[in-house]
Amino acid sequence: MVKLIALYRRPDDPDAFFEHYREVHTPLVRALPGLERLVVDRVTADAFGGEPAYALIAEMHFADRTALKEAMRSEANQRVAEDLRAFAGDLATVLIADAEEVG
Predict the structure, then answer these.
(1) What residue ranges do the domains of the chain occupy?
(2) Assigned CATH class of 9-48+60-98
(3) pTM score
């Protein structure tokens, strides 16, 4: 399995950010072809104290890199990318990770 992971730094207006993410961005992401699972974590604390660096972490699960590449080339992803740039372009870091269960 491969994941596309989006880390969102803390926005200036958290209420507006979370509302947009839930009402607009999430439905766009769910439309990605080949998306097997979407996990959205709202960060509530830093385990070591202080203000957490991130407000939200989203994991998009795909069967393999081929499925991810097809999703990234899709028209649906063009809409995701446009929305991301518009509401959180300077807040987001997006990573690709190979996932492996251990233990």
Answers:
(1) 9-48+60-98
(2) alpha beta
(3) 0.93
Q: Helix, strand or coil for residue 38?
A: strand
Q: What is each CA distance from 91 to 17, 35, 88, 96, in whole angstroms?
A: 10, 23, 5, 17
Structure tokens at 87: 């509401």
C-alpha 2/C-alpha 62 separation (Å) is: 5
pLDDT tens figures, 4-50:
999 999 999 999 999 999 999 999 999 999 999 999 999 999 999 99
The Cα–Cα gap between 69 and 81 comes to 14
Rounded distance between C-alpha atoms, residue 45 and residue 97, angstroms: 24
